[in-house]
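> forwarded from #structure-qc
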């Protein structure tokens, strides 16, 4: 046994001993939405997840495409379709739509008010409701260090990787991915990165484009050959509560093909 009992004075207890267990964090002076989002734009994004009755998928796609085309082209509505997909692997019989509102929350409010007074759109919603099992959405901002999601030609498959983070870790996530993204841009696969503001919180969506599943595998494997990628994965994994991957096929009218 020990010849002398091990004792800690009150001062030492508040010193190195407590430092083993207390992780000191500098006080933040701003919301993570202001620290991580693009400053040069005031875009707000909405992502929609529609779970569709399997027998209605074709009819749903036709109806949704017609309405999306009208809203996308109508200059009176400050919104546009960024991308529209049907899931292939992951959750089945699901459609995913990503919208951009140019002008942030005021643009979103303007669109909602106009649509609520649009009889044609209200009829569309009634018809669409008959085809759905469930639906949910989130309002998103885009990470400042990610690519701007611009229209691209196809054919491509898209992967949406969704990360549910531990509350309080968004800034740390952003710091690591601001460095990590450079390892994933060589093959033009990085489409866009977003984080939630309303809906499920502390959610991150990374959107990637690949020629096919084999190209996806090769592109992802090549990242591990680059010095520094492994460190970013090592430091971000502990921030995640859960994650999921969707492989998606663009609809015919999606700007992201």
């Amino acid at each position: 046994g020990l010849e002398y009992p091990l004792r800690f004075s009150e001062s030492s207890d508040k010193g190195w001993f407590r430092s083993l267990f207390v992780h000191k964090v500098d006080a933040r002076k701003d919301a993570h939405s202001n620290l991580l989002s693009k400053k040069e734009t005031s875009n707000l994004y909405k992502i929609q997840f529609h779970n569709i009755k399997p027998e209605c998928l074709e009819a749903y796609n036709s109806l949704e495409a017609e309405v999306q085309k009208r809203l996308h082209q109508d200059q009176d509505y400050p919104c546009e379709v960024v991308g529209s997909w049907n899931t292939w692997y992951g959750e089945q019989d699901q459609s995913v739509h990503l919208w951009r509102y140019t002008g942030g929350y005021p643009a979103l409010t303007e669109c909602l008010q106009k649509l609520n007074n649009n009889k044609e759109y209200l009829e569309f919603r009634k018809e669409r409701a008959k085809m759905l099992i469930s639906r949910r959405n989130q309002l998103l901002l885009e990470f400042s260090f990610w690519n701007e999601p611009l229209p691209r030609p196809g054919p491509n498959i898209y992967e949406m990787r969704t990360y549910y983070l531990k509350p309080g870790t968004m800034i740390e996530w952003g710091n690591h991915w601001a460095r990590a993204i450079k390892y994933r841009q060589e093959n033009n696969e990085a489409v866009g990165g977003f984080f939630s503001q309303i809906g499920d919180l502390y959610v991150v969506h990374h959107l990637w484009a690949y020629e096919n599943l084999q190209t996806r595998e090769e592109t992802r494997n090549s990242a591990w050959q680059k010095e520094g990628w492994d460190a970013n994965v090592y430091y971000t994994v502990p921030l995640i509560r859960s994650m999921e991957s969707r492989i998606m096929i663009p609809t015919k009218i999606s700007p992201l093909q």
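QC bot note: The longest strand covers residues 79-89. The radius of gyration is 22 Å.
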